[in-house]
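4.2 Preliminary Data

To establish feasibility before requesting continued support, the project team ran the inverse folding procedure on a target of 339 residues. The structure was first converted into the token representation described in Section 3, and no sequence information of any kind was made available to the design step. The complete token record follows.
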């Protein structure tokens, strides 16, 4: 009897040890994970932009005439006051000679009749008439001088010659551009943004601009946002100011533009799938993260705006931290996982 009881106790002890050993060697829970990414990397939408000059100045003669010489070429840098072109000034010089002769005649008459006026031999009306003729001759002389000066076209601003539209031998018309001067010391990148996304962009939104023509990436500056939409495409034009001290960026170059989310100017925003964020019974939010020893842990987070299937996390996790996106329903704190 005692021998039977001892045998049963021995079998029970061995079976209990086997169960505990099986529990300790339980297989890890299989999950699906993803690394938390930087906000700018999570934007699926990029925009195509066009580089524009900061300002364009069309320079033209004020009068009509035949262009004699053009002293600049496209792409040439010019400074304010530099001579750009000359018009045939033969007629203007002849007019000036006639105006100078009229001025001499008027001054001579003023001198001769002045003595008569001083002696009382000239009526006041006649004296006023002489003075008026002198003033008219002076005005005509000044106009003739200006017309001659206007036959020389000078640069009103410094910049790069963008396009030469009139050549030597052609007739220039008033207000018809001879050359266009572009200010590219800084440039603007124009982007058309859909109306559903324009509210996310403001004057200080950070932007990254890639230009294949220069094989360089630029940090965008202040944004000028248009308020009138295109009637057909329902997009708004925005212009991003970009420094261009080396003048590598030229008008017409194509650029790829991506915007920061605006959660922080330092770019510290992280993105995780929306489905990875869970809520506790007390209303606080958390995500399941994987530690270095392959164990799962609840990590409290603070969230921002959603961006498609992603949501921004402003605090709680770091860039590159592994987040559990599927299979977390079977987890508890400290569970071993495999991914």
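Position-by-position output of the design step:
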């Amino acid at each position: 009897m005692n021998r039977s009881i001892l045998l049963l106790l021995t079998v029970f002890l061995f079976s209990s040890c086997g169960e505990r050993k099986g529990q300790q060697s339980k297989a890890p829970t299989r999950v699906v994970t993803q690394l938390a990414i930087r906000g700018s990397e999570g934007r699926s939408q990029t925009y195509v932009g066009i580089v524009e000059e900061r300002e364009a100045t069309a320079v033209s003669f004020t009068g009509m005439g035949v262009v004699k010489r053009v002293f600049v070429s496209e792409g040439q840098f010019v400074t304010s006051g530099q001579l750009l072109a000359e018009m045939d000034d033969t007629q203007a010089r002849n007019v000036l000679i006639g105006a100078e002769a009229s001025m001499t005649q008027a001054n001579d008459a003023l001198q001769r009749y002045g003595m008569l006026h001083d002696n009382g031999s000239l009526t006041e009306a006649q004296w006023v008439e002489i003075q008026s003729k002198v003033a008219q001759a002076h005005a005509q002389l000044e106009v003739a001088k200006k017309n001659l000066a206007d036959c020389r076209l000078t640069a009103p601003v410094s910049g790069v010659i963008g396009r030469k539209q009139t050549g030597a031998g052609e007739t220039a018309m008033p207000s018809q551009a001879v050359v266009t001067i572009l200010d590219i010391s800084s440039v603007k990148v124009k982007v058309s943004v859909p109306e559903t996304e324009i509210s996310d962009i403001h004057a200080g939104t950070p932007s990254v601009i890639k230009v294949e023509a220069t094989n360089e990436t630029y940090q965008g500056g202040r944004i000028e946002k248009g308020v009138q939409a295109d009637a057909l495409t329902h997009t708004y034009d925005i212009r991003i100011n970009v420094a261009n001290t080396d003048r590598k960026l030229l008008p017409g170059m194509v650029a790829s533009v991506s915007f920061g989310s605006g959660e922080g100017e330092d770019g510290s925003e992280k993105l995780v799938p929306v489905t990875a964020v869970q809520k506790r019974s007390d209303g606080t939010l958390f995500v399941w993260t994987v530690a270095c020893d392959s164990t799962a842990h609840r990590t409290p987070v603070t969230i921002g705006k959603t961006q498609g299937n992603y949501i921004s996390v402003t605090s709680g996790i770091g860039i590159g931290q592994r987040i559990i996106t599927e299979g977390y329903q079977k987890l508890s704190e400290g569970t071993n996982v495999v991914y």
